[in-house]
């Protein structure tokens, strides 16, 4: 009898301690703190429930990484960092300096890269036995139903935003009507046929009145383009569009398979709300 009473007291103390510590939920024993929920809300500008759902999925993903025994060694982390630096036209030292300037330590950055690689491997394993190659009929059906997605402009009118500091550029993108010191703006027209196919895709897939993703320039600067208007749109022929159609269908399938996978896991997970 004493054992039962002591056990009850211990559980009550543990629960009280978690509440004081700010633990809001537990997912299969893993804590989600109220601070995490609030911070994610502010960072992504999403609702509390959306933040909670994302954090629950993150804990479930960690469980799956452990279940699949997915490990990433230091060599793979270094290799990925080298690729990221090269893609940004930076040396590894310049990349580390940029990360440090953003308030992230080298160890924290390496941990983020490791988790990213583990997550990538997990998604590949989930998809490996579920994804199917699209048939010609499936490709044509998607193309016929979504022809607007394959309208290609000959020319795009843009405002080029150029800066040496990515933070300043992001600030200008967030407030495009303001003049931010250190950010230059240029009105110009771009003929898509003059661009490489890879760069042309950026302008094709960015809607009017939105910014392209931030790109690096040859001089270690950063650039983004505000799409004002498209001129001379024409429908990309099916044969030329097939690789793009296949990519779009594949992305839809992947998203559906991964969502179904985690929905099934979540339905049987032990999720406990301690404090709201």
UniProtKB/TrEMBL annotation:
Organism superkingdom: Bacteria
InterPro entries in alphabetical order: Cj1289-like_C, OMP_Chaperone_SurA, PPIase_dom_sf, Trigger_fact/SurA_dom_sf
Gene3D superfamilies: 3.10.50.40, Porin chaperone SurA, peptide-binding domain (1.10.4030.10)
Pfam families: Cj1289-like_C
Keywords associated with the record: Isomerase, Signal
Domain Cj1289-like C-terminal intervals: 136-229
Keyword Membrane: no
An example molecular function term from Gene Ontology annotations: peptidyl-prolyl cis-trans isomerase activity
Protein name: Peptidyl-prolyl cis-trans isomerase
The species this protein was found in: Helicobacter marmotae
